[in-house]
Amino acid sequence: MLQDTTSAAGGLEIGGILFPGIDQADFTGPFEVLSRLPNSQFHILARHLTPVRDGKGLVLIPEERFSDAPQMDLLLVPGGSGVNAVMQDAETLEFLRRQAVIARYVLSVCTGALVLGAAGLLKGHRATTHWASFHLLEYFGAIPTNARVVIDRKIVSTAGVTAGYDGALRVAALLRGELVAQEIQLFLEYSPEPPFNSGTPETAPPEVLRSTRDGLAPLLAERLKIIKHITTHKI
Amino acid sequence: MLQDTTSAAGGLEIGGILFPGIDQADFTGPFEVLSRLPNSQFHILARHLTPVRDGKGLVLIPEERFSDAPQMDLLLVPGGSGVNAVMQDAETLEFLRRQAVIARYVLSVCTGALVLGAAGLLKGHRATTHWASFHLLEYFGAIPTNARVVIDRKIVSTAGVTAGYDGALRVAALLRGELVAQEIQLFLEYSPEPPFNSGTPETAPPEVLRSTRDGLAPLLAERLKIIKHITTHKI
């Protein structure tokens, strides 16, 4: 992995967005990594400054409105059930488009990739997302790529939820070098020992895959309908 | 791993505590797992309802005071630089002692173990904590045990920060069975691919270990002083 040495000189502006129905771990995992980058500032961004409730009830507080945010070097876009609404929110999509022109990296975690897609940022880019939404990438003109972290030019996308750690460490290394990323990994004692081999649809027991898919079916049906609508009508 | 079948009938009360200077990932990782347990309620607890700022600036909102909390079946105790103060906070320690009598499990993540130690809950128990604080466990009469997750009777302790995922999934399986834990693991796509082999002091490059240790030295010197004081004077 090569360090992007053009960055070493200046301070980094890093922004992460919050929205209602976010999956908090898509944000908090990468925050844990990226907020430790030397010579950088992490901006916790949202449309409004109203506290934001995650899909399971954890409340996070945004600190800066999109409209007040400076240009970011790195923008973190998490996912969660709330992306169904965010994909249709013109203000958020416009903010992402504007930031992405100059940002050095845009990091989507989990279904945050669908928000990038809705903003038109995945066209012709290899990308990944949560396994259950993987089939939706193609609607945005992305090149669906089944990997835990996919880096294509400035778009870095990761698989579901916990893949945010792997993506954030990769980006940390790109921005500040491998030694810095390794220090962060050591501090976070990131030497995982998952107790089961159930972390992907390929390795999970069939009954586990079936029940998990069944649980997600209504959300995904709604999501497909929304994506078909917005990709046809170009909001 | 055996399921604790006595639990299958009733709803689970799960509580996690917040405090200033928490390392938010110690809380948010296990929250991500445990808030998905069926037939359960997750209580976000703190001394006061004042928003709590984590060591890197993320603000989380407690929803219930210690004094209003019902008896928990599972109590999550995160760590962070703020444990230096929490180890000396009589109200928090008393809350933990009282809850631990009846709770089926107490799960410490990272230096949350030191808070359990200060509450007297580690005496004669095998336990682990963040690698940089591992040498401090013995002051509390614990049996320091170098593993990612240590389960000794009702005390479940994990290594640093990201080990909370492994510990929470183990507890999820104990409380609700392996199929449920595997479903959660699949939903979270927890099939980690750390980009470097730097997640433990044994595997990190020597210069990475040295600089990370140096960065933590002042906090640890203060911590040792506090622990010597409280274990001598029995607060």
Offer a quick outline of the entry.
Chain A contains seven helices and eleven strands. The first copy, chain A, has helices at residues 24-34, 83-86, 90-102, 112-118, 163-176, 178-187, 206-233; strands spanning 12-17, 40-46, 52-53, 59-60, 64-65, 74-77, 105-108, 126-127, 143-144, 149-152, 155-158.
Fold and architecture overview:
Two copies of one chain form a homodimer. Chain A has seven helices and eleven strands. Chain A is an alpha/beta fold. In chain A, the strands form three sheets. The first copy, chain A, has a seven-stranded mixed beta sheet with strand order 5-2-1-6-7-11-10, with helices on both faces. In chain A, strands 3-4 form a two-stranded antiparallel ribbon. In chain A, helix 1 links the parallel strand 1 and strand 2. The radius of gyration of chain A is 17 Å and the shape is globular. Chain A starts with 11 loop residues before the first strand and ends with a helix. At the A-B interface, helix 1, strand 4, helix 5, helix 6 and helix 7 of A face helix 1, strand 4, helix 5, helix 6 and helix 7 of B.
Helix-strand blueprint:
Two copies of one chain form a homodimer.
Chain A: E1 12-17, H1 24-34, E2 40-46, E3 52-53, E4 59-60, E5 64-65, E6 74-77, H2 83-86, H3 90-102, E7 105-108, H4 112-118, E8 126-127, E9 143-144, E10 149-152, E11 155-158, H5 163-176, H6 178-187, H7 206-233
Parallel strand pairs in A: 1-2, 1-6, 2-5, 6-7, 7-11, 8-9
Antiparallel strand pairs in A: 3-4, 10-11
Helix pairs in contact in A: 1-5, 5-6
